[in-house]
Amino acid sequence: MRRAPFVLLLLSAATAALAQPGSQRPATSPPPTASAAAGRCGVCHPSERVQFERSTHAQEEVRCVSCHGGDDRSLAQAVAHGAGFIGRPRRDDVPRLCSSCHSDEGKMRAYNLPVDQYALYQTSGHGRRLAKGDMQVAVCSDCHGAHDILPRSDPASRVFPLNIPRTCGRCHGGNASAAGRRGKPDDHREYLSSVHAHELFDRGNPRAPTCVSCHGVHGAAPPTVGDVDKVCGHCHTAERRYFTAGPHREGMIAAGLPECVSCHGHHDTSATQPQRLASLCATCHGGKSKQVTLGAKMWTEYQAAATQIEQAAALIERADAVPIQTDDYRARLEEARTYLREALPAAHAVHEETVTGLTTRARSVGAEVASEIYGNLGHLQSRKLVLVVFWFYVLLTVVVLRRFQSRAARKD
Amino acid sequence: MSDAPRVGGTPGGGDASGGGAGPGPRGDWVAWLERRLNLTETFSFLTHFGLVWTPVDTSRPVREVVREVASQPVPAYARWPRVLGLLAAILFGLEVVTGVLLAYYYRPTPEAAFESTRTIVRDLPFGWFIHQLHGWGAWLLVIVVAARLLRLFWDGLYRAPREVLWWSAVAMAWLVLQSDFTGRLLTWDSRSYWAAVRGMEVVFALPVVGPLLAFLLGGRVINDDVLIRFYALHMLVLPAGFAFFLYLTFATLRRVGLSPEAPMHRGAATTLRDHLYSMLILSVLLFGVLTTLAVLAPFRFQAAADPYSTPTGVRPPWYMLAPYAVIENGPGPSWLLGLLLLAVAFAVLLLPLWAPRAAGGRVLGRMRLWGLFALAAWTALSVLGAFMERR
Amino acid sequence: MSQGVEPERQPQQSVGAGGPPTSRRRFLSWLSRAFLGLWGLGAAGAIGAYLRPPEHGPRIAERIVRVGLLEDLRIGEARLVRHGVTPFYVVRLDAGRVVALSAVCTHVRCILGFDRERRALTCPCHDGRFDLAGQVLSGPPPRALPSYTVSVRAGEVFVQL
Question: Could you report the predicted ipTM of this complex, rounded to two decimals?
Fold first, then answer.
């Protein structure tokens, strides 16, 4: 009983200490180390602290003072913002600030992170402009965020593959005017209309290209004429192989026309349209040139083979309704379709025999299948002939039976 | 004396010479059997099952009995309109034979039903033929039992003492429709699956019968349990029921006699042997007709059933279109409409009990008029059911 | 049949009792019976052909394909089995292990080819490559190849699709 007032005093002191605003734990309790990292800066900067505690830096014991300097143990602004305080870094200082850790192999080796980002950045379009004093370019924090930096594998991260188009689009998109880039094309919206975006977003294919797949990550720069086919050919190896074997590559480089994108578009890349084989050639070559004739010929051959295959497929459906065994025909038709699909990359070589070789093979397999099915259906018609013979047999049987019947009747 | 060729299928009839059981080189084995086994009693199985009219003295030797039976004068029943019953029996026999052949390869699970049917129809020699015979035979059987019912009604052949005939005819017609319905589902293709679903909706809407049938058939959703119960019904229960009522018909006919002969046929004395020949000729012609249908108008092979996607415009089978129209589009709650349908069905069944007893021409004429009216109503409802939109 | 209607003739056909049967009548009678017997023969033949159980080929509805004998498949070799629209490769990895992979590229469904040195499946259309576990090595295909269960029974290889 004598100790009661002392206990009461301790309790009230503890409660007072705990009841300080800002030092309460947030509703979703982060791991204990996070609070230690943010120190006491969050007392005055709560929203930044909340963002920071979600980030991957907070979990790796990077503290506010690591980037901003100052003293994170004091609540008094004079001390907290005192010696060594950087505060909000200047835009052109940000890359150097980040690279102070991220270019240090000793620090990064344990995380298996690369250390060439700053060097690459300096070669990039962004970096070179920044060096010349243009502040309206991206620095590290524009793409990775400042406080809410998350690893690339985290779906909430700004550099998660599905989020990259939006991140780049903050400047290279419809909001360009906000970032001071009035009059520039809306690359973001063009990309969203492309087949690559469809593959990425609608079909969930994580290997589909985003902005960084073609432009590079930290050394981002648009590929120059002569390099474009290497970039596209990273995935489209077959097309690149045929393209390099044909006359287009040298011709386009000599004319200063970028490969691939001159016909397929660069951000709004569209899927293969074989009917363009006829019309596209005329955009560079004259309307009556032999190239246009070649293009038209490739298209007619392709179309003929595709039509033949469609016919054969329709016949297979008809045969199935009878039914006739069609598994083998379906297998052969898939082979024919393979030849046909191969013809489109082969068209990049703009060589007649290459393409017509494939389309002719496709068409002949289709024609074979069609004629065999016709044969089978024809055999079924022979059943009708057998029916006629059968009826003779039936009527003869009836006559014979009647004879037996009348003979038996006469006897009774 | 007797020339009884083997074609009639009568056992024991051969080319042996006439006269008793005299031992000859070929008569020996029959006499040998007869000392050990009552062949006549074995033969009398046929008399019980309806082909033969006269009772058989099982103490006499079989050859004598067969000869006597074959020469019996009998009324002409292989002529129109009595031949309908005979046709039904023949078609039933054909369905059983083709059904057994199909059952050798068919598998009644949802995964295998369609595939096995396709194997039968596509890959096996004559499989398509047996399958088409079974299908067209079923169609013909439905028409024949329905026609028989109509003819019995038209000629007033439901009045005492022929009530049992009428009930057997109604039961046989109902069993044939059920066989048709259960048989359709077995192929497990999309149109038949969804037609079965629609048909079951009609059945489940009936008041007492509906939930009972849902219980017996394994549920309201057509799944693998329901399929195998349909299979068991189609293969075992319904044919057995049909055979029983067939037997009952013959037994009743032996008691009450055939319907009075039409004037044109009076005087044509025929024997049983003669009728057997007529039956054989009829069977041959029927087979010819079915073969023609199988070759010229084969049922098209459909796509496999997909319980998750409904093709458009699927209706119940044609004989269920009238109840379908009543229940789907009739005014009032569906249980009431179902009750109405059940009442109509029972009225048809119990016709002999409430139809006027007097056997006059005017009475018959009036009943015929009511019958025509009912038929017209049923046809109109069926047409409505075929074209209407679901509520 | 050309039998005359002669009531005075004895219609008996059998051997023995009765009047003398003419050989022509006996022959015609035998002929008609044989003719009718053809029905039985025809039915027996058709039903017999139908009832013979099919020996080879896929087991009905279990979607199991018999590929062949295990010893006919060399180690490191792949065999393309045509199976309608789902052709597949059967690859013998070593003495004991056999895998079956779909031969249809997951890009636009071209039929793959087998690259023996690289132990990979390559697509002739757009150069997609898959390893023998079905994973994409390079190229435009978006998804891995489906693989099928292989069982070896009594020296025969069966694949379940």
Answer: 0.79
